[in-house]
Amino acid sequence: MGYMPVPQSCIFCDNSACSCEHLWPQWILDRKSFGSFRLKRPGALEVILSNIELTVKSVCEKCNNGWMRAPEGDANPLLEQMFDDKPLALDLNQQRTIATWITKMAFLFDSKKGRNAPNVFYEENQGTAFNEHLLTPQFTLIWIGRLDEEHRSADGAGFTLLSKEERIGEGTSLTLANEHFVPDRQHPSEGDTDGSY
Ligand SMILES: [Zn+2]
Q: Ligand 1 centroid vs 124 CA: distance in angstroms?
């Protein structure tokens, strides 16, 4: 009897995952090329990533072609203006739209660590709750900023929260940058330095 690997399930529902989703949405990659993606990890040599390595095997076909399209479509007109460095005032609804998109990106980048990696941040029920309600999980903080120059990157790191030199928890942060747009997300969790793309 041969060994059959158990298919990994989708991080947002109970279906089996496929390798259909790209870490960076294609429309962002199509806007501007910054050359190859490189992976930098502390204490290791920088490596150039192939297209295969830029996909995630953690979402199913149904999520990918269904509800996940909405945060992308809603945020696209706002993001494009910020990518282009056009001044923009965001009302509360627009801030929510951007926060939902950043959270979706954070789930995908987190899932790239592998399902059973010790530093995976999001729990299964947070993924299914995000699918149902499109709300950013509790205790998540999001900042957005503007870059003087342009680049595309994703940097992840773990950190320890201290109060009077006592450890009170672990956190994780992800900083994404595309062209002139820089959102940053922080959340207490378990984790180590995650490397960067
Ligand atoms: Zn799914």
A: 12
Distance 194 CA to ligand 1 centre (A): 24
Residue 149 Cα, ligand 1 centroid: separation in angstroms?
A: 37
Q: How far is the CA of 58 from the centre of ligand 1 (A)?
A: 8
Q: pLDDT 10s per residue in the chain (197 long)?
A: 445 555 688 999 999 998 778 889 999 999 999 988 898 887 888 999 888 788 888 999 999 999 999 999 999 999 999 999 998 999 999 999 999 999 999 999 999 887 778 788 888 899 999 999 998 888 889 999 999 999 999 988 888 888 888 988 888 899 999 999 988 777 665 444 455 55
Which residue range forms the structural domain that includes residue 103? Answer: 21-196
Phi, psi of 11, deg, nearest 5: -75, -10
Is the residue at 40 inside a domain?
A: yes
> Other CB atoms closer than 10 Å to residue 50's CB: what's the count?
10
**What's the farthest any 2 CA atoms get from each other in the chain?**
62
Neighbours of 156 (CB within 10 A): 24
Residue 151: inside a domain? yes
Ligand 1 centroid to Cα of residue 21, in Å, is 11
